[in-house]
Amino acid sequence: MTQDLGAGLGLRPQHYDAVLEHVTHGLWFEVHPENYMVAGGPRLAWLEAIRQHYPIALHGVSLSLAADTEPDPAHLRKLTDLIERIEPVLISEHLAWSTWRGLYHPDLLPFPRTHAALLRIADNISRTQDALGRRIAIENPTHYLHLETHEWSETDFLRELTQRTGCGLLLDVNNVFISARNLQFNAADYLDQIPADAVMEIHLAGHSEDSELGATLLIDSHDAPIAEDVWTLYDHFIDRIGARPTLIERDDHLPEFDVLLGERNRAQRQLTQQQVAA
Amino acid sequence: MKISLAQFQDNFVDALWHTDTEPMSLTALSSHFLPRHDSPPPEPSALAKLRSQPGFKIYRNTVIKSCIDALMANYPSVLRLVGPAWFHAAAAIHARNAPPTDVCMLVYGQHFPDFLKHYEGARELPYLADVARLDRSWTESHVAADAPLIGATDLTHLSAIELGNTVLRPHPSARWIWFPAQPAYTIWRSNRESAELDGELLWCAEGALLTRLNGTVIWQSAGLGLCTFLYACARGGTLAQAAEAAIQADPTQDIAQLLAELITAGALSPATPSDYS
After folding, report:
1. Smallest Cα–Cα separation from B192: which of B245, B139, B120?
2. CATH second-level architecture of A7-277?
3. Which of A131, A163, B178, B267 could form a disulfide bond with B262, CB atoms 3.0-4.6 angstroms apart?
4. Is the ipTM above a cut-off of 0.85?
5. Which domains does chain B have, with CATH numbers?
6. Is B125 at the interface with chain A, CB within 8 A?
7. What is the pTM of this model?
């Protein structure tokens, strides 16, 4: 189902009109399902209108698979309703948490990769896939903190989750680049350890430097063009694993739609070259 | 010391919301919003180790910024009235006292109007909370369930008795508020439409009706009769009862005109046949 997907873009409300005015062949979009978990109204109508012309992927930010509790059944019901309505080509979530004890802390929060966490998260992924009746892809998060209590490397942890649950991976190359800088590891080595068969989707985005600490602390701000270093890592990655649906995220300092489309077309060219070479 | 994932999360949440400048906010947050269940208290050294790393502020900043950004997006008229700096300060306090409980940030800030009503910094702006209620009404109308509207001729075939016994329901997207003490709707509208007030502001009671037509939230001023009529309908009263209440509130109210106004605005759902008797 996802084999035909090339490069896509995160869909922002500011661009609803632009994408419907000029339908671009081969383009697809990704949205956060949370922004459409409403009873009705124009937002759902816009998404359904865009779905008539483009494939849509759902990229969750708040299911909290890495929380020490089962996924919220009400959240899963809302997600199921949206899936029935939109028929997404891909569904993904983060290896992170944000809801806890009834509150939503709107960010992708870290956790120690212990064996107990592995068991809990594997169970949460399985419950989610059972409830949705679909395979989901899990995204590697951005890291800003050294946690002393990790028992697993992230790549081994992700591989183990795919083997235990049958889930796929959404590999965010920008997140790897940022985390490698912030925690001082080698981004290329990390990417080399990702099991190729499990990768269902790739994310690319721009980042920024911390205003006080500069290049020693990078932030996953999605507010700038993709960095050349990230493009290079992406090239090497798809060289090894083959072409995969690739999504460009941009949430802030939003340029005109054509500018974003230019970045997307660059990813599409790299995917096409890779496919020709293969 | 090895701690459970749950205890790590408890510690992390405490560290996220704790600020050195507002030591009371953590206590307030914990007592109101963070049921402890059986968890032991946060482990101080683990918490300190997390907070001492430069990267920790990224999480803290992102969480509070997401809350403030959502409040700014959801309360544009309040923002325009008070300016970004004032709004930012008030929103940060509110976010610490009432973090989101729903993962859909389009609807975050349900309690913001109440917060503004009691907020010391808004004492000089007694209309601010009511303006916020109208921004909230806009959001609720915007995301309300889709449902059919009553047709212009749906009631014309009914006899007078049938009409009186009909139960009309407000459409899910309809919101109405009567402000008995101040012209909150006029103030809200001029800010929502980014327009200057026409002439001098008359300090009097007024009401507002917000509805959604063809996917767009629209607004109009509403009299006490209209608001009273809709309150009666929402409580399940018959058209006769709602009309009586409306006339009691405003003896000059023309019910036929009121019905036409509500139908045109898209404020009513179709009456169900079982309601006729």
Report:
1. B139
2. Alpha-Beta Barrel (3.20)
3. B267
4. yes
5. 5-139 (no CATH), 141-275 (3.90.930)
6. no
7. 0.93
